[in-house]
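Work Package 3 (structural annotation) set out to generate three-dimensional models for the target panel prioritized at the project kickoff. During this period the team completed the workflow that converts sequence records into discrete structure tokens, so that structures can be stored uniformly alongside our sequence database. As a representative example, we reproduce one entry of 76 residues exactly as it appears in the project archive.
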Amino acid sequence: MTKKTRLTEAERDIMVRDFLAGSADTKEALKLRVITDVFGRSWPISKLLKIVNDFSGRLIVAQRGDLLVEAAQQRG
């Protein structure tokens, strides 16, 4: 079994733009690990579908480096 190559930040941005524009295959796009959390872990788009059940519908979205949001995320 071979480990998949991680996407660069630029590649993630392109994938997200394609997904939002509707030009990416939805099934494949949902598997792409294009969301990065404050701890540097990457998550697939499909993880957003579980937020309502697993995280009480709470989602914080911010630009990387936003100190207020990062502090709130780390505190839980």
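The chain is about 40% helix and 10% strand.
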